[in-house]
Amino acid sequence: MLQTASRVDRNRKLSFAVTPELHEKRKLALKVWNFYDVASVSVTSPKITGSRDIKNVFRSVAYSDSSIKLDRFLSLFNNDFSFLQDYIHDKFWNDLFLELTTSGKAEGDTIVFKDLFEQCHKVMLEQGQVFTPREDGRYNLENLSLSLKYMVQTLCEHKVFLPGFVIKCRHCSSRIRYSIEESKEKFTCKGCSGTNHLRAENPIAYKLNSLVKNNYGSKSAKGIYVPDGNMTAVRTLIHL
Ligand SMILES: [Zn+2]
Predict the structure, then answer these.
(1) Origin, by domain of life (predicted)?
(2) Is residue 36 a contact partner of residue 46, using CB atoms and an 8 Å limit?
(3) If DSSP codes are grouped into helix, strand and coil, which group holds residue 197?
(4) What percent of the chain has pLDDT over 70?
């Protein structure tokens, strides 16, 4: 690459204009394009030597909507496949994500810790895990609770779970989720605009990020759940 008037002819001969300034300097800097720049130009602007036509059919190449969705999903897990595998390959977590994705209930994409703990305990018992009292071994309910709290905390920090509260309105009985940002001592119901107070025993409801739900699947216009192909791609990438 020359920062002066120059050209390369069909026979690949380089010619350039020597300006008085260039002559004064008595130096000529020649910069060779790096491979990736050459490859990029060859793909986006392929041109036959001597031809004036640029066949730029690939110039407007961009990620498809599904690819963007997959890219953002993977970034939730820091693009770390072993981290992702811990959840996707685990029966309890995978079933839970699927359940929160497909649930038809108004607040169906949320779960409180107590339910999460009970579901995990049930799955482990079904898989033959034996729990003992705390003093008799490490597989006890206290340790299960501690490790689940750690995993939920990790998922919250990565925005896979979004903490908030599901409040039942005392005026219209609607059960509506409020994010942490929306949570105050007093709530204005999103349905009837009535005022509610946060109840002391209200547990945190963890909402599954819509990005995770959309990569698992979505409902068609007829209301039928359709699995998303991205999850097949994710499982293949984990396997590789
Ligand atoms: Zn209400």
Answers:
(1) Bacteria
(2) no
(3) strand
(4) 93
Q: Does 60 fall in a domain?
A: no
In the structure, how many helices (H) and strands (E) does the chain have? 9, 10
| Interval between CA 108 and ligand 1 midpoint (Å) | 18
SS3 169: coil
The values of phi and psi at residue 219, to 5°, are -90, 135
Domain-embedded: residue 35: no
CA distances from 59 to 44, 53, 62, 125, 191 (A): 5, 14, 9, 56, 48
Our count of domains for the chain comes to 1
Q: Is residue 6 assigned to a domain? A: no
CA 129 – ligand 1 centroid, Å:
44
CA of 123 to the centre of ligand 1 (A): 36
Judge whether 53 lies within some domain.
no
Which residues are close to ligand 1, an ion, with C-beta < 5 A? Answer: 169, 171-172, 189, 191-192, 194
Distance 180 CA to ligand 1 centre (A): 19
User: Do the Cβ atoms of 212 and 231 come closer than 8 Å?
Assistant: no
Tens digits of residue pLDDT in 132-151: 888 888 889 999 999 999 99
Residue numbers of the domain that contains 203 = 65-239
Task: Measure the CA–CA gap between 149 and 159, rounded to whole angstroms.
Answer: 15
Other CB atoms within 10 Å distance of the CB of residue 71: 12
Q: How far away, in angstroms, is 150 Cα from ligand 1 center? A: 34
pLDDT, tens digit (0-9, with 9 covering 90-100), for 35-48 = 888 887 777 777 77
